Amino acid sequence: MEIRISMAGKEEATVIADMSIRTFEETFASHNTAENMEHFLRTQFTREILIQQVGAPRNDFLLAWLDDRLAGYARLYDSPELPRELSGTRAIEVSRFYAEQFAIGKGVGKSLMEACFDLARKREKEWIWLGVWEKNHRAIAFYEKMGFRIFGRHIFLLGQDVQHDWEMKRKL
Is the pLDDT of residue 105 over 90? Predict the structure, then answer.
């Protein structure tokens, strides 16, 4: 199997939006109420919002392909606001990191994250960081394997449910 990483442009915005919604639902629907999922997807994670982010300033989208089939993507966001622990540093956030079910365990995530590291270095960043739901143990284990370490915690509101995300960082 061949893994290829490419930069996304506006022409991939609808595909990215659709994958975002589908993989978010596949990953989190069984752990949350239908009402909270529906509220989040209707207000904060709409197709229109997701489409607008592709090509927007401070956003870079990387696509992962497995044998010419779109297998996942990452969104790097160069936010002007950083967690307190990274304040004053040159840091960039992996604000989304999604893979299709068929691609999990096939090296796509590793290749995609390494591409994120490479792009962050090109942008002259010294840190890369992300937030991950504290109950998403498989993702946390993957990020730790990729060199990330927990450094903080923040609130994530899914509908009416107050959840907590671990903040993880890695020195580049």
Answer: yes
